[in-house]
Amino acid sequence: MSGRFKRGQMEMVGLVVIVILVTIAFLFLTQFALNDKSDHRAFDRKQLAVSTLTAAMRTTVLGCSPHETEPLAVEQILLDDCAENRDPLESVYHCKSADGTELHSCQFLQEVLFPELLKKSFDPFKQRYEFKSVLVNDPENPLITSGSGCKGRDTDTSGEFSLNTDHGLVSSVLLVCD
Amino acid sequence: MTETIAVLFIFFVLLIFGLIFYYKYVGFSLKEEQQLGVERRAAEVVTKTIFLPEIQCTVGNLQQNAYCLDVMKMNVLPEVMSEHLEDYYFTIFSFATVTVEEMYPLSEDGKGRVWKIYDNPKIDFTYKKQSSFYVVLRDDAVRGPFLGVQHSFGRVVVEVYS
After folding, report:
1. pTM listed for this prediction
2. Residue A115 included in any domain
3. I want to staple B115 with a disulfide (CB 3.0 to 4.6 A). Which of A24, B18, B74, B121 is the partner?
């Protein structure tokens, strides 16, 4: 009786080993399948970040005084003006908001242009993003920030977009995350 | 003897479950592979559109910059494309729809211009993938007094079929 009981126990141990092996194989397959997918998504996200920031920086804006009829480039003129004239009264260019109020170039980029362009780009895909433009010699006080933030998330970057101004180098980065 | 039969029975039940799971997984991964192929093709079509010499921004014979499409060239492209759809453009884009949309600035009625670059959808498709890419649209027709050219913010929307 004792021998039969022991054999039964050994068979149960064998069964448990088989179940453990099947579980490990299942977990391995699942992990492999998930990893493969995330690599592909990361590539898409990186391209999206680069193309969006490149296009946004090269976009021009009409209706900014003192040259209302001149298309002004976002990076070369408005961001440059923002970096060189941060004082609210000193800005060379003033652009109109939706309600017709004239805004300082920094304020226009911060409150009107970048939120509009980036929201239109990322909201349809329900994708989070973070945009930051800083003077390299004063990183604590960013010129422009936009987006809901990417801290602690799987993130891709557009890479740094640099602009040389009289007040130093301006670095702009767009992060895109899930 | 009874225990051996019971263990063998459970073993075969597990084996059958394993096989069912494996076949389901193979079927699912085949479908995923097919979808991945379509997604890769969507990315390829987007890249081909952005670097299509017919609509790319140029200065003289030189490429101006990446991610820039010329509005004046896009206005006349459908005419050129319709003449060579089968013998040339189908080999580049296959079954796909390529649209360029102006997103900023918008006209007073809140709408932007839209260009249908290529329109050849597959009627009996099993899977469709949409992909977007952002570009700047250079419009030489809008120039300022200091000769600045308008560049709008736009997007290329690609739909590919399998």
Report:
1. 0.79
2. yes
3. B74
